[in-house]
């Protein structure tokens, strides 16, 4: 019976795994304000292969130090197998793939030289197949990506803005044993702890969510919820960013920082830090028990209601951010919540050890009021953008202000404005 309950709970958590759908747009608005009084530096575009070839002696040391940190922090994390570790003796022709294997990410990720055009600019379009291996391109078909050439000069803000979206392009797809991939059997992450391993985008869910404040009874029955990995990715890419800056590769310093920011921004979304806001532990367990004996409707309704609000806030945010940027509506209440920061509004990013307290706890605590407010709106799904004084904008303004706050704090901690 206990195995049945656990299996049923596992299926329950096959809910949407998207977070903010428009990382690039949000980050554009943040940097537009945060760096407004400074000249944004230009950096020389550099291929990943070039960076790795020049710094191959330092890569494995950086990855090893990051893994030591993560192993101490995440008891469910296994060590990287020796045969996957990056070596200074790696042949240049294989160096990018070897780097991906050492990171334990999707080895087919392309790391193209590009910017996401936010706002829209002229240039040579980059075909999506040169950017991502995703079969279902989703909202990427709505975006414009411009090709860059190695050696070209580009603004650091454009690098960060583009990079914050990139981990969703395929970086964490199919990394578990029960996914359709060869590396899933090599990486040591085990079976996918939650989400649907047969669904392409869902396979990345445990790397983009972090559940740290659920009731003890939930963790007792569903210990797999502890098996999340955003902290691993944030630490890996933060340390690589620091290495790149230290060694004179600012393009990759900014790009790795953008990759790390993606996961931090994901965790500011309440539905990524709380499994089922406003659904008590007893109710979660209760609907599982009655579903086991054949009464499926209560569980189906619960999933539908929560996932519907989860999807609504992300869909609405995506189209709203695109609209305010294209129309330059800088006075929209959601925009002002993101952009209008004074010295007293800022917070300090002391270390990644504080992520759970400063980011995840804040998002978890916002889960119940956010979910209740969204339910009271009685909007079943996204269909249109509303007038500026609509209450959905108050909800978004509160959430995205937190995203803005933590994005600024992280970038300031790296001192990446150089």
Automatic annotation (TrEMBL):
GO molecular function: hydrolase activity, acting on ester bonds
Signal peptide: 1-19
TM helices/strands, residue ranges: none
rRNA-binding recorded as keyword: no
Keywords noted in UniProt: Signal
UniProt entry tagged with the keyword Calcium: no
Protein name as annotated: Phospholipase
Species of origin: Leptospira ellinghausenii
